[in-house]
Amino acid sequence: MEGREDTKMKKIVRINTRTRETVYSSEGDFPKMGGRILTSHIITSEVDPKADPFGAGNKLVVAGMIPAGTTISSTYRLSVGFKSPLTGGIKEANVGGTAGYYLSGQGIKAIILEDKPEKPECNILVIAADGSIRVEEASYLEGKGTYETEDILRERFSGKVGFMSVGPAGERGYLNSSIMVTEMGLERPCRAAARGGGGAVMASKGIKAIVVQQADHPYTIQYADKEAYKATAKTVNQAIRKDNVFSSGTVVLLGMTIPSGIAPYRNFNGDTATEREQEQYNVQTVMDRMQENGGKLGHSCQPGCVIQCSNAIYEKDGTFLTGGYEYETAELAGPNCGIFDTEIVARIDRFCDDFGFDTIEFAVSLGIYLDCGKMPWGNYDAVLELLNTIRKRGSLADDFGLGAERLGKKLGARHIPTVKGQALAAYEPRNLKGTGVTYAISPMGADHTSGSTLGNPSVVPHEKAGQLELSAELQSIMVTADSHMCLFAWGNVMEVAEDYLKVLSATFGEPWSMEEMFGMGMETLKKEIAFNRAAGIGPDKDKLPDFFYEEPSPVTGAIYDITAEEIAQKWHSMVQ
User: Fold this and answer.
1) Total-model pTM
2) Average pLDDT, whole number, for the chain?
C-alpha cells in the first residue's frame, strides 16, 4: 500500500510489513526525543521483552538525531533500535552516511517497521522524492551483497538518494548481521549500523533495502526563534571544528593502544604485538596504505559534517576497495587475529560490508577460531579463503553467523571475549579497566560506543581506582550524545554547552537544561535495563568472562578486578 503525508511537521512513519499499510503520526507524540533516546523509548514501550527477535512482535526503529535539519554539524546520524537476536536484550546501533540527511529532508523523524510477512519476502521500502512511501517486491535482489544491491537500485533511482541495505548475512538470519548505509562522496555502503544483528531483524520484516530519495520539496524547520538560533549556532559549529583529532580517521588510535597493550592481541590474550609486528603494522603503515592509488583521508560520511573522519582505500588499478576503515576493524581484524598486513585487513573490511557482517563480531569470532587451532596464525591466504567459503554458505558460514560467543562455545574455546552474547570491541579490559566496566554493565553488551574511557586523564588505564565511577558517569552521557549528534562532535559541543542549549530552545521553543538533557539519558538507561531484566538478562550478566579476572596481562601485570559487589553497590543501586 502506498502512503503519503503532506504536512510540514516532522512525522513518525509506521510501516506494517505484513499488510504494507503506512500510518503517520506527529513528532509531537515524542517530545524532545531522537536517536537512541527515541528508539529505546519505542522498543521498551511497544515490544514485549520476551518477544521472538525474528517474530511479528519485534520492531525495528530508525530514528534521526534531535537537531537533524538544523545547520548544526554532524547531526544526520541515525539510531537503529530493536530487540537483538544476538544478546536477547534491547539494542541500539548508531550509523552515519547519507540516509539520515535524506530522511530529515523528507520531514521524517523515525521509521518503525512492524509485524512481519506471513512467509519470507524480499522487498524494498521506497520513500520517494514526492513524499510517497511504498513497499515494493524486489526478489531480483535476493542473495546479493550490499554493493551489488546498491548498484542495481541506483540504476532504478537516479539522482540524490541514500540506501540502507542488508547483505546475505541478514537474509540468512545471521546473528551478527549489519545494516549498511551509503557513504557521502563514495556512494558505497561503507557505514554500518553493525552491532546486535539488526540486519537479520530488518530482513525478517521482508525488507532488503530502504531507499530514501531527496525530497522534491524538502522539509524545513520552523524555528521558534530564528534570530536567537542564528546568534548561537555559529558558536556551536565553530566549537565542533576546533582541535579535530580525528581528521585522519579513528585509526590514529592504533598509535596509543598497540604499544600500551590496550589493543587486543591474539584473541584478547592480554599481550601486545612484538616489536617486529609493530614495525609491520602501525598508524603510519595503515595511513600510507589509505593514501596509495588515489586513496582519500579526511572526508565526511554525511552532509554538513566538519569532522571529516572517514577514508577510502583503492586497488592498484584505481578501483574502489573499501571505505570507512575504522579503528575497531583495523585492530580486531589485525593484531587480534595475528594479522599485520593492511591489505588483508582491508579485504576483510570490504567482505564484511558487502556480506553484511558486523566487523567487530566477525573479527572476534575469527580470533577465537584461530586461537582454537582451526587455522594457523599468520596464514593470510587461509583467511582469504575462509571469506570465500562463508560467502558460498555451508556449515562453516552458518557457524560464523552465530556470533563470537556461540561459535566459541561450539568450538570449546578457552577464551571467549563476550558480554551478554556480544563480542568485546577493540580495547583490552585488563589494561583499560574503565572501558572493561562499560562492557560489563552496559545494557547493550560489550559496546565501545556506550562509554569508552580511553584517554581520560582522571584515571590510570590499568589501575582500579575510579574506573567504575567513571564508567557509570559516561553511560548516560553516551546515550545523550547518541541522541543528538556524532560522538566526535559532542565533546567539543559540551565546551559551549550553554550555547547548545540555547540552540535547542530557539529551535523547538521550549527551555532546555543540562539536568533535563542528561536526565533523559539516565532515564533511557533505566528503561533499557528494565527491558533486559524482563527479557531474562539479570544482574549476574553484568560481568566479564572469567579469564579476565584470573589471567594477568603480560604487559601490565593487571587483571580485571572490579567485583560484582562493587557493581551492585555503585551501579545496580543507581539504575534500579
Assistant:
1) 0.96
2) 95
End-to-end alpha carbon distance in the chain: 43
What pLDDT does 84 receive?
98
Distance CA 49, CA 431 (A): 35
Which residue segment(s) compose the domain that 103 sits in? 11-213
| Residues 455, 257: Cα–Cα separation, whole Å | 10
Domain assignment present for residue 241? The answer is: no
Give the closest residue to 161 by CA, choosing from 221, 79, 105, 94.
105
Question: For the sheet containing 123-127, what is the strand order?
Answer: 133-137, 123-127, 207-213, 161-165, 179-183, 188-193
Strands 310-314 and 320-323: antiparallel
Rounded Cα distance, 364 and 402, in Å: 12
Number of domains comprising the chain: 1
Please check whether residue 344 lies inside any domain of the structure.
Answer: no
CB 489 within 8 A of CB 307: yes
Q: Are 363 and 325 in contact (CB under 8 A)?
A: no
- Phi–psi pair at 40, nearest 5 degrees: -70, -35
Is pLDDT of 384 > 70? Answer: yes
User: Which amino acid belongs to residue 182?
Assistant: T
What 3-state DSSP class applies to 253?
A: helix
In a domain, 552, yes or no: no
Residue 5 binned pLDDT confidence (cut-offs 50, 70, 90): very low
CATH code at position 135 = 3.60.9.10
Distance of CA 441 to the CA centre of its chain: 18
In this structure, is the dihedral angle defined by the CA atoms of residues 198, 449, 524 and 492, taken in order, positive or negative?
Answer: negative
Sign of CA dihedral 63, 67, 71, 73: negative
**In this predicted model, what pLDDT tens digit does every residue of 197-224 receive, in sequence order?**
999 999 999 999 999 999 999 999 999 9
| Phi-psi group of 201: left, alpha or beta (phi > 0 → left; psi -120 to 50 → alpha; rest → beta) | alpha
> Is residue 544 in a domain?
no
Does residue 545 contact residue 415 with C-beta atoms inside 8 Å? Answer: yes
Say yes or no to pLDDT of 292 above 70: yes
Q: Which residue has the cell 582469504?
A: 384
